[in-house]
Amino acid sequence: MEKLLIIGGVAAGATAAAKARRLSPNAQITMLEAGPDVSFANCGLPYYIAGDIDSRSKLILQSPESFNEQYQVEVHVNTLVESIDKDKKQVHMSNSQNGQKRTFEYTKLILAQGGRPIQPDVPGAGADHVFSLWTLEDMDKIDYHLKNNNPKTAVVVGGGFIGLEMVEALVKRGLKVHVVEKMQHVMPLMEAETAGFLTRELLAFGVGIHTETAVIKINSNSVELDNGKTLEADMVLLSVGVRPTLQLAKDAGLEMGEAGGLLVNDQLQTSAPDIFAAGDMVEIEHRVNGKKVRIPLAGPANRQGRIAAENALGGNHSYKGSIGTSVVRVFDAVAGSTGLSLQQARAAGIDADAVVVHKEHHTSYYPGAETVSVMLVFDKNTGVVLGGQTAGYKGADKRLDVIATACAGKLTVSDLADVDFAYSPPIGTANDAMNMAAYAAENKMSGYGPSILVSELDAYLETKERLIVLDIRDVFAHQKSKMNGAHHLPLEMLQPNLDRIPKDIAILVYDETGKKGHQAVRTLIGAGCKEVMNISGGHTSLQRHAAAAGFRNINMLPLPIEKKSIGEKVMEETETNKNVSASELKKLVIDVRTPGEFRSGAFPDAVNIPLDDIMTGKGELGENMDREIIVYCATGARSAYAQQVLMSRGFSNVTNGGGISAMMSRY
């Protein structure tokens, strides 16, 4: 009879035990867990502290009793494994509560000990008001401190996944929170502009952000930073990373890998044939570049646990590796990454490039549309998708999963361009953000749509003695925020001014998201300009990169941070039109955009009568059918329709002023 012994529970170990029982009704399965809980939802811990999960019991997935009842698995908690005898196939343990020692025999052994939070060597790190978050016990200590000591301020050390989730949790518990990150920006594994999206969200909720600095001392009610600052802190949360639990494996003589984890083959078999391993303690192959990596994530750990159990019981299931797909929600903002970042791809020797697009997650005319951002990383020579990142308030996870699937299937950007994604106005767009990203990548590869990433701008500018930067957005967007030194030339006015633009000087173009920038680039190239590039992602990407990392050679006028609060209800403004009687004006300028668009900036003395109101006759225009009327909108499309409606109603002197930029330049 097979004696399967599993050391470690939670994700990989508990999954391995359950899978093993389904595979073999007769095997003797025993699980040894060092802690008091065998299977719990450790990814849910921050959300219990935040109050999003209202019951602690929901986090307990299995107990030793339920595991035995459901799977006939013998579970021993509070069990410290002291040594492994590979020759005798024995494991020696002691109970951490009563000191009782015992020896277990096995025919096959699965190691699933995971990792532990790194404890920085900082004075004061062992104080009672300093915490880490890894187990239910850790969670209970934090919750007790919040309820009984009523802290007002907190410092979270580490701006990774758990760190930012705990920032949100503590803000929701009413604390003033600072996050300290040693790297250039929070979420260091993400590109700066993706992290910038999260940075602006954190700032909107009043979180203090301190990057490129470290905590050097923790006091009773403050922390000291290496940049000389002192932050108030009634409690401190340490979240600086996870170290794999390897001492037992090292003592047993098992081989370690180049990435610092336990070495396993594609069967998840260690250097000892009868010992398998899974979860955070192992290093595995990255599916994109084939390098050995450690990816401490719940998804891979669960899948590895299943495969380790299968192979330990005689199976032949190869683990293909991990893509490292991960996503985080910070307040309302969601961002994630998968595969290789551009920096990682180039460091691996791949001739890689990337593009960025920002697009509505569903059709813009259906209520509730939010911008979703996609960065697509690809091999410049083959077009194979290498990875990517997404960000947005809605729809970011869906697009991230598409990129992950493309990485797993080794699809090219051209393959992605031709995918039919689900479309309905409340759900998506006819050309999804993923299609648009693929189109942009194809255009960049072919040279049809040359572009540059915001992360590359500093280095690019250092190579140029002469350069023109064109901001082709409308005048109101330009006034609110811009790249200092940029020439403002709205897209509608580009064609009439082509003769004024030097053809032998490098030209950078940007709009709000990059889409109109591409159109401008094609116009300029067609006019004979020699070197033209669109800033990929436009002003949106510029703002995000500036927020997270800043620029050396660019001075950006930042957009103000819109303050948010927990439980805030955003009220719609009801007063939309100017307090002017349209019927009294001899010359009438009508803005036919929506009230929201009108509030963002309008032509002087214009009256806002939305196109829908003009069509239904709600706008009061008076009896003078011959007076001059000028209608305009964002692009000229809706105003052309309004012109037709008014003329059909008998108004004889109606002019279509076109888009807002054209209006501002013509009149």
Automatic annotation (TrEMBL):
Cofactor(s) of this protein: FAD
Keyword Disulfide bond: no
GO molecular-function term, one example from the UniProt record: oxidoreductase activity
A matching Pfam family: Rhodanese
Domain of life of the source: Bacteria
Rhodanese domain sequence ranges: 463-547, 588-665
Entry similarity comment: Belongs to the class-III pyridine nucleotide-disulfide oxidoreductase family.
Protein's recorded name: CoA-disulfide reductase
Organism: Maribellus luteus
